[in-house]
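Complex record, three chains
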Amino acid sequence: MAEPIVRAAGLEKRYGLRPVLRDVSFELEPGGALVVTGPNGAGKSTLLRLIGGLAAPSRGSLEIRTERRKVGFLGHEPLVYRELTALENLDLYGRLYRVPERRERIGMLLERFGLWEARHQRISSYSRGMTQRLALCRALLHEPDLVVLDEPHSSLDDEGLTLLDAELGTLAAAGKTLVVATHDPGRVASLATAHIDLERA
Amino acid sequence: MSITRPSLSALAALAVALAAASVLMIFFIAPEDADQGLSQKIFYVHVPIALTAYGCFGLGAWKALRLLLTRGERYDLESYTGIHQGTIFGALTLVTGSIWAKASWGVWWTWSSNQLVLFLVLFLFYCAYFMLRFSIEPGPQRERISAVYALFGVALIPVSFFAIRLASDFIHPTVFTRAGPQMTGSMFAAFCTSWAAITLLAYVMYRTELAGKRTDVNLRELREALAR
Amino acid sequence: MTAYLGDVAALARKDLRLELRARDTLPAMALFVVATLVVFHFALPGGASEDAAYGLLWVALVFTALLGLGRAWTPESEAGALDGLVLATSDRSAIWLGKALATLAFLLAAEVVALPAFALFFAPLDGPALLGVLLASVGICAVGSLVSAMAAAARGREVLLPLLFLPLAIPLVVGGVGSSISPEPGAYLAFLGLYDAVFAILSWAAFEYVVTE
C-alpha cells in the first residue's frame, strides 16, 4: 500500500477539560474515501476540522501528507461573505489560492453546480441549498488533493443531491482522497474504502 | 524534589527572614532622610515592589513566548500566574506609591510621578488581560490569545514610559520634582535586602499559586475521568 | 512578495467593497465624530484654553476609531469566512494587513469630516497636527485590528474591545496631542513613528497566533 495520505494515532481533542475526541486512530491511503459517522456531539465536525487543518490535536499524532493549501474543506458554515456575490466570493478565494485560469475555473464550477444564472446575486439572497452548493464550489475551487466534507448533503434539494453525488464520483475516479462526515452512510457506501464510527467521548 | 533544589517552605522561611532583616535595616540602620523624614522609608518597599512587578510581567511574557513557539502545555498556567502576580504587585505599587505621595506631598495621587502613572496604565492593561482571558472558552485559542496579549504588555511598558515622559515634558509640566535618592552604603544595603526579600516572596507566591492551579486542573481531570 | 501584496490588496478591496455596499459603518463614524465634537463644546467650560480642545479632538478620534474597529471583523464572523481565509492564505498575516489597511481607509475618511469640523468649531490645525493625526491613525488601525480580532473570539466583545484598546491607545493620544500643541512637535511625531513601527510589527507577527489553534 502506498504511504497513507492521512495517518491518525491516538487522536485526542479537548477544549479546556471537555473531551470531544478520544483515542481516534486510522489510516487513509491516497485515493481512498473515509466515511465518518456517529451521533450528534460525537465529534465528527471536530475530527474533520483537525484533518482540514483548522485545529490541532490535544494529544496523539495526526500526519497529513499533503500541503495545507491542497486541502479542500466544507464545514457546517459556508465560509463565504454574505454581502458579496457568488462570483466575487469565488474570485477572492481564487486569488488567495492562486488558482490558474481563475475565471474559467470559477465559471465551470458555477455551471456544474447550477449557480451560473445566480452568479451576480449576493449570498444573502441565496437559499440554503444554493449556499451549500456555493460552499462546495469554494471547497473544490483550487483542485484539492484531499477533500474534507462535513455533512455535504445537508440543505440540498434533489437536484443538488444528484449534482453532489456525481461530483463525489468524479473526484473518486480522479484519484482524489475524500473524507466525508454524514448521517446517511448509505449514500456514500459505494465510494467508501474506510469507515469510522465515533461515539460520544 | 531533588536535593539540590530548595523546597518551597525553605524558601518561604528565607523570605520571612530576609523581610525581618530588611525591616530592621530600614528602621535602624538606614539614615533618616533630611527632607522627607520617616515617610521616605516607604521607598525601600515601594521600589522593590515595582521592580518585582516588572519582573513578573516579564516572566509572564517569556512564558507566553515559549507557549507560542513550542506549544508546551505547561506554559499557559505559568504565564497566567506570572501575569497574576505582576498585577498583584502592580496594585501594591500603586498603593505604596499613593501612601508615599500622601506622606511626602500631602496628596493621595499625583500625575507628576512618571512611575506611578506608568503603573496605572499597566494596571489597566493587565486587568483587561483577565477580562479577555475569562471571556474566551478554555482551549488552545484562549491560551494563544492570552499569550499574545501578554507579549503586547511588555512592549507597552517601554512605549508607555516614553509616552509619559513626553507627556510630562509638555502636556503636564512637573509641579513636584524628586531627585533620585543618592544612596549611601547603609541605604543601599537596606534597599538590597528589602529587594531580595520581596523578590523571593514573589517567587514563593508564584510557585505556590502555580502549584495550586495545577492541582485544580488535575483534580478536575480526575473528576472527569471518574464521571465517565 | 508580490503575491503577498496581491493577497493583501484583494482582502482590503473586499472590505472596501463590502462597506460601499452596506454603507453603514462610515456614515456612522462620520456622524458620531461630529456629534461628539458638539457634545464637547457643551462639555468645555467657558474659560477653557484652546489646548484643551486639542485634547478633546483626540478623545473624539479614539472613540470614533473604536466604533469602526468594533465592526471590523463582523463580515468574517457571519458565515465563518475567517476560517476560509485562514485555510486559503499562504501567510495569515496578510489577513491582518488587509483588514488594517481597509480600517485605516475608513478612519481617514471619517477624519476628512472630523478635522474640518474641529477647525470650524474649535481651533485651527497646522501641519504637524495633521501629520500627527495620520501617524496615530496608522497605529490605531494596526493595533486595533489585532485587538479587535481577539475580542471577536470572546463573549461580550462589544464591551471587551474598548478595555483592550484604550490602554494601548494612551501613547497615541500623548503623541497626537503633543504634536498639536507643542512648539516642538518633532519629538512627538518621532514617538508616534516609533509606536507605529513597534506595534505594527508586533501585530503583523502575532496575528497568525490569534486566528489559528
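Note: Chain C is about 85% helix and 0% strand.
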